[in-house]
Design a protein that fits this description.
The chain has 68 residues and is mainly beta. The protein has no helices and five strands.
């Protein structure tokens, strides 16, 4: 349920926008969020949870926008 992304070319600061979605099997509920306090200029951590516990998604889709 947790994924840490390390960026090859760091942004100029931690003030960049990270967008992500996570896919799950049909019929399952999945909640996704950025883990508080984990974003730096070169990495970020995301977490996904099912109805009662952390759950690994089928796939992640991630994009980052900001100054480099």
């Amino acid at each position: 349920g947790r994924l840490t992304i390390t960026i090859a070319t760091d942004f100029s600061s931690a003030n960049w926008c990270g967008l992500f979605t996570a896919s799950t099997a049909a019929g399952n509920n999945l909640y996704a969020l950025e883990t508080s306090g984990t974003k730096t200029s070169g990495s970020v951590q995301y977490q996904t949870s099912g109805d009662s516990a952390n759950e690994d998604p089928v796939s992640w889709n991630i994009a980052g926008f900001g100054d480099i």
